């Protein structure tokens, strides 16, 4: 019985440690800072009431509904509410209530005490907001929601400030809700964050609730890698999701499909816009991807692949032999493939240079969907060099019929003997010893190499 217990324990442990734990990259808690416009224009009438009163009412209702969520903390900053507009005070911005668990009532009370007065220092308020969030805490995401009815009225550049703070990781891309501001609002605020123009109090309430839902609820995605027929068949590829603003990698995954060919579901942070790189050869990129928060999203990327391999009768003749892979008619090297390897490439045409002696070239090699393209490399022969002296030695390809030749290789002579694996063809060897007292002592040898055979040159004969 005791042995059975230990056997079961062993099996359970094997199962438990069969694979590493999943990545955990999304903080479980969120801090939401409301930045409320308290400038004089918020006293204007809108949708049957004053803009400031509509904002207070909607924010109060939202905060009341969020009391049960222990994973979200709130804070309130207001601007333009302390000094009259005639003073044009461009530093009129204040954190009224800081972050604290369960402070909903405090935020609501302070919210209702705000009376619009002054100007609109949006850039300064965003800059000050950096002090509102506690120091980096891996358990929290920092979110900023700006509620306004107008544009920057001071000399600040809210676009530059917001982008700089996002790149530093102070907060994620801000949400901006305009209260009946008109069609140009989106253009003016798109550089700051995600702008929304509420045309009514009902739309404002829906937008605010929708934003908080995106922040709080889980967001998942399915990444489909499509083949040449746009079917989701590709898999087992490294994929990286980058933060579109900071350029830093957020998620690194190896794409997975189960035995039923279904792609798994991945949880992501919807508050980030992404650049996606599928690490095929060559890479496939998809820029500025935004996911709908609180829902399941599907993203498709076309990445059809086939395989390339080399065939050689005796690959040991060329230890560590490599093929240089380039896209057709392009100079940039995509990959260095070992002659014994089998690797995947995107469907298309490639130019390939194999580092045999001399080099072997394949032009316009076509890689087809789910097929293996095999390139034959001729069996090498062996060139043996004997009685070598220190000197200068070069190999040339030689064309018997035309008498033309082309340089292919300079030999680095070490010792008295050398053996080279070399492709079948006719060659010319040109050699002069270092100690030879004149170019007339240059030695020229013409020879032919046959596949699988050896040819020896004695320099002294």
Walk me through what this model shows.
- With 461 residues, the protein is α+β, with helices and mostly antiparallel strands.
- The chain has four domains: 29-216, Rossmann fold; 218-302, Immunoglobulin-like (Sandwich); 305-377, Immunoglobulin-like (Sandwich), CATH 2.60.40; 381-458, Carboxypeptidase-like, regulatory domain (Immunoglobulin-like, Sandwich), CATH 2.60.40.
- Helix content is 17%, strand content 40%.
- The chain has helices spanning 2-16, 51-65, 104-113, 122-128, 158-167, 185-189, 201-216; strands at 29-37, 45-46, 49-50, 72-79, 93-100, 140-148, 175-179, 194-198, 219-226, 232-234, 238-243, 249-254, 266-268, 274-278, 284-289, 296-302, 305-312, 322-327, 333-338, 342-346, 348-354, 360-367, 372-377, 381-386, 391-398, 405-411, 418-422, 425-433, 443-449, 454-458.
- The strands form eight sheets. Strands 5-4-1-6-7-8 form a six-stranded mixed sheet, with helices on both faces. Strands 9, 10, 13 and 16 form a four-stranded mixed sheet that branches. A four-stranded antiparallel sheet has the order 12-11-14-15, with no helix packed on it.
- A hairpin with a 5-residue loop joins β18 (322-327) and β19.
- α2 runs parallel beside α7 (201-216) and α4 (122-128) packs parallel to α5 (158-167).
- The radius of gyration is 35 Å and the shape is elongated.
- The model has no long low-confidence stretch (mean pLDDT 90).
């Amino acid at each position: 019985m005791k042995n059975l217990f230990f056997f079961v324990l062993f099996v359970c442990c094997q199962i438990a440690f069969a694979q590493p734990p999943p990545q955990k990259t999304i903080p479980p808690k969120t801090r939401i800072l409301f930045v409320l416009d308290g400038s004089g224009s918020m006293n204007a009438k809108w949708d049957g009431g004053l803009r400031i009163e509509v904002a207070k009412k909607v924010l109060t209702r939202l905060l009341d509904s969020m009391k049960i969520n222990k994973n979200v903390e709130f804070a309130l900053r207001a601007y333009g509410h302390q000094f009259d507009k005639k003073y044009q005070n461009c530093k009129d911005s204040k954190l009224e209530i800081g972050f604290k668990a369960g402070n909903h009532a405090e935020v609501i009370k302070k919210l209702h005490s705000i009376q619009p007065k002054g100007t609109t220092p949006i850039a300064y308020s965003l800059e000050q907001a950096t002090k509102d969030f506690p120091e980096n805490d891996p358990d929290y995401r920092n979110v900023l929601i700006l509620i306004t009815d107008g544009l920057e009225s001071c000399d600040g550049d809210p676009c530059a400030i917001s982008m700089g703070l996002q790149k530093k990781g102070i907060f994620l891309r801000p949400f901006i809700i305009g209260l009946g501001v008109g069609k140009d609002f989106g253009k003016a605020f798109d550089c700051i964050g995600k702008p929304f123009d509420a045309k009514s109090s009902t739309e404002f309430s829906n937008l605010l609730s929708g934003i908080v839902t995106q922040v709080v609820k889980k967001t998942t995605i399915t990444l489909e890698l499509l083949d040449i027929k746009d079917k989701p068949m590709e898999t087992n590829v490294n994929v990286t999701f980058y933060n579109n603003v900071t350029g830093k990698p957020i998620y690194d995954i190896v794409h997975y499909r189960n035995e039923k060919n279904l792609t798994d579901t991945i949880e992501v942070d919807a508050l980030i816009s992404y650049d996606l790189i599928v690490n095929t050869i060559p890479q496939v990129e998809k820029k500025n991807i935004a996911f709908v928060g609180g829902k399941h999203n599907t993203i498709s990327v076309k990445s059809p692949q086939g395989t390339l391999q080399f065939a050689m009768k005796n690959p040991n003749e060329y230890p560590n032999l490599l093929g240089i892979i380039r896209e057709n008619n392009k100079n940039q090297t995509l990959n260095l493939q070992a002659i014994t390897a089998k690797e995947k490439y995107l469907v298309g045409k490639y130019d390939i240079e194999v580092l045999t002696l001399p080099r072997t070239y394949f032009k316009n090699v076509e890689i087809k969907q789910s097929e293996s393209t095999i390139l034959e490399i001729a069996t090498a022969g062996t060139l043996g060099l004997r009685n070598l002296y220190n000197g200068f030695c070069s190999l040339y390809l030689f064309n018997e019929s035309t008498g033309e030749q082309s340089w292919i290789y300079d030999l680095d002579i070490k010792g008295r003997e050398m053996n080279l694996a070399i492709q079948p063809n006719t060659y010319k060897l040109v050699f002069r010893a270092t100690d030879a007292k004149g170019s007339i002592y240059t030695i020229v040898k013409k020879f032919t190499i046959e596949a699988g055979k050896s040819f020896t040159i004695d320099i002294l004969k």
